[in-house]
Amino acid sequence: MGWVESIQKAINYMEDHLLDELKMEQIAKEANSSVFHFQRTFAILTNISVADYIRQRRLTLAAQELMNTDNKIIDLSYKYGYDTPEAFTKAFRKQHSITPSEARKKLGKLKSYNRLVIQVSLRGAEPMKYKIVEKESFQVVGVKRTYNCKNGENFQGIPVFWDEVNADGTDNLLFQLNNGTVEGVLGVCVADKDYQENSLIDYWIATTREGDVPEKFLGMEIPASKWVVFEVHGPMPDAMQNTWKQIFSEWFPSNPYEHAGTPELEVYSDGNASSPDYYSEIWIPVK
Q: Given its phi and psi angles, is residue 116 left (phi above 0), alpha (psi -120 to 50 degrees) or beta?
């Protein structure tokens, strides 16, 4: 099964169980993926998190039921996963800009979020520059934090982590320590192998280094891999985000490779990250 079909299978599962207690581990399992890689790919392709998609779809169906039935608002609150009518009303107003009572009286407009269908984009208008390299295992040293990607903690926490590392000078020190096989400072995502039991990832801000692990830093070995290395040109974070989207929406569907499931790298060069000429890379392990 291709990766597009796998993601669509997971979306179909969510739709078939919208009124049930959906567990992120089971959704990812439908796509034959780890929680982290599924959530990351889903967000890149759709510009929305899995949790937000489920919430928006439930509130869309709730609005339709309000308009077309006489079911009580309190019953709809519980049906669509809210513990109290107050919580349901708050979420409903946030999405639709009107209350459930106002919707029933047809006093405003509603927002409808429709069922997603993943379509492959093979535009090819913007060429992608990449190379395939094979490397033996190598060591990275740096700092790390653990995030729970079930609730989207990684999406909020990782940018804050980078801000702190840039502010306290850790990034400059990592550039100085760099003497390994990959030049630059790295963002490294390491998903927990036992993804059926938890949804944790380690995120490292690190550099490659041969020899000792300096005090106050941690070390980790990146396994020998075949890598596809994509060039990224332009200011952060937009250039990096746009390249990730192009990789998953265009490159993977038109190439025979699969993600190997081992750590992936974002590689940042020393320079002005706001410059239109800034250069960085994305390293994805493939099989």
A: beta
